[in-house]
Automatic annotation (TrEMBL):
Transmembrane segments: 113-131, 225-243, 268-288, 295-315
Name used for this protein in its record: Omega-3 fatty acid desaturase
Sample GO molecular function, one term: oxidoreductase activity, acting on paired donors, with oxidation of a pair of donors resulting in the reduction of molecular oxygen to two molecules of water
Pfam family, one: FA_desaturase
Domain Fatty acid desaturase N-terminal: 1-126
Length: 438
């Protein structure tokens, strides 16, 4: 048995020649050997022989570690969690762990959040316009931009149907909220549905998906800068609405776009018309109030909203301390793709933007209302095990996330053109050029 090791599928296979025990291993005598268990991981160390058990709670890769201690050698068999392995549970088991009341949608409660957020938006605008002080304006821009983002999240819930069971109510509220911040409701709703249905798939995912190397190598220097050099990726959303991501064509405003099927074109026309109506209203207000006032009241908060949206959506799929897999072909499943998403803690902002940071359960079950996501996540965590990555705790403001963002943009550049399980790779040339430019 000394030449055998547990395989990834929990069977036995020959130990690679480079890792087999020496014919005369420099180990202490038998009476001084023992297996000690740390967190369910057996470790061979000096001591006396004890019983041990190998407990497998998630797919793992066996890793043999050689450590020198004095003149002897300690061998350790450790379980290394492999996030790319199929999970030992299914969607049904996760669903069963979530309390039944978490699936209930309360339209009155949903509407209360809409009323609250709209009241705050108008209150902030009125206060800033009356005070009209350049000390106050930056505070207003940060607060109002965050509230625009909160309105987007509520419209996002309408698009998922988690706002209520009434399709007409969802559509009306969604159009009002999204049009007010220049988002074409149905166009975005449909593409976002595609994102959820194909999350974690290299080619079929819709937003912030990795670029295969062949597409990445064809990008010109300006496009690479816009995608990977801050602050440009945080201003990408309006560009995405008009032209999608590199390697994909179409527009969220064009009913003939390949984003949509024929029976969705009427919805897209409706949303585009609402967007044009809002743009016309803003143009009229600019003529009445003056460009500077509209720049202060609307344009800058809109820019802050865009940065919030790009920051949050990017970090829900990037920036973890360990590389997470992306899938193709037969390796992709809805569950495996959803389990590569990340929860994030935003401190005080959690309540303001309606707990959108509780993202794993939202991606797997987007019909759960936002006000039940935290409870549903807590109930599902024992089933998810290591497939749930506990988010770093935030201070009052989520300033720690800028480190994760910057690190990811410097090393998550492309994935291999082949392989059904792939991980982000780094372009040394891009990293060195961006470093030189600083």
């Amino acid at each position: 048995m000394a030449s055998l090791v547990l395989s990834e599928c929990c069977g036995l296979r020959p130990l690679p020649a480079s890792m087999r025990f020496r014919s005369k291993p420099r180990l202490p005598a038998a009476p001084h050997l023992s297996f000690v268990s740390g967190g369910g991981r057996p470790i061979l160390s000096a001591g006396f022989l004890r019983d041990w058990a190998l407990r497998v709670s998630a797919p793992a890769r066996p890793v043999i570690v050689e450590q020198k201690e004095g003149e002897g050698v300690i061998w350790a068999l450790k379980e290394e969690f492999d996030p790319g392995m199929p999970p030992p549970f299914g969607l049904a088991e996760i669903r069963a762990a979530i309390p039944k009341h978490c699936w209930v949608k309360n339209p009155w409660r949903s509407m209360s959040y809409v009323v609250r957020d709209i009241a705050v938006v108008f209150g902030l605008a009125a206060t800033a316009a009356v005070i009209n002080n350049w000390i106050v304006w930056p505070l207003y821009w940060a607060a109002q931009g965050t509230m625009f983002w909160a309105l987007f999240v509520l419209g996002h819930d309408c698009g998922h149907g988690s706002f209520s069971n009434n399709l007409k109510l969802n559509s009306v509220v969604g159009h009002i909220l999204h049009s007010s911040i220049l988002v074409p409701y149905h166009g975005w709703r449909i593409s976002h549905r595609t994102h959820h249905q194909n999350h974690g798939h290299v080619e079929k995912d819709e937003s912030w998906h990795p670029l295969p190397e062949n597409i990445y190598r064809r990008l010109d220097s300006i496009t690479r800068m816009l995608r990977f050099a801050l602050p440009f990726p945080m201003l990408a959303f309006p560009i995405y609405l008009w032209g999608r991501s590199p390697g994909k064509s179409g527009s969220h405003f064009n009913p003939e776009s390949d984003l949509f099927v024929p029976n969705e074109r009427k919805d897209v026309i409706t949303s585009t018309a609402c967007w044009i109506a809002m743009a016309s209203l803003l143009a009229g207000l600019t003529w009445l109030m003056g460009p500077l006032k509209m720049f202060q009241l609307y344009a800058v908060p809109y820019g802050v909203f865009v940065m919030w949206l790009d920051l949050v959506t990017y970090l829900h799929h990037h920036g973890h301390e360990e590389k997470l897999p992306w899938y193709r072909g037969k390796e992709w499943t809805y569950l495996r793709g959803g389990l590569t998403t990340l929860d994030r803690d935003y401190g005080w902002i959690n309540n303001i933007h309606h707990d959108i940071g509780t993202h794993v359960i939202h991606h797997l079950f987007p019909q759960i209302p936002h006000y039940h996501l935290v409870e549903a996540t807590m109930a599902a965590k024992p089933v998810l095990g290591k497939y749930f990555r506990e988010p770093d705790k935030s201070g009052p403001l989520p300033l720690h996330l800028f480190h994760d963002l910057s690190k990811s943009l410097k090393q998550d550049h492309f994935v291999s053109d082949s392989g059904d399980i792939v991980y982000y790779e780094k372009d040394p040339e891009l990293s060195s050029s961006s470093h030189k430019s600083k």
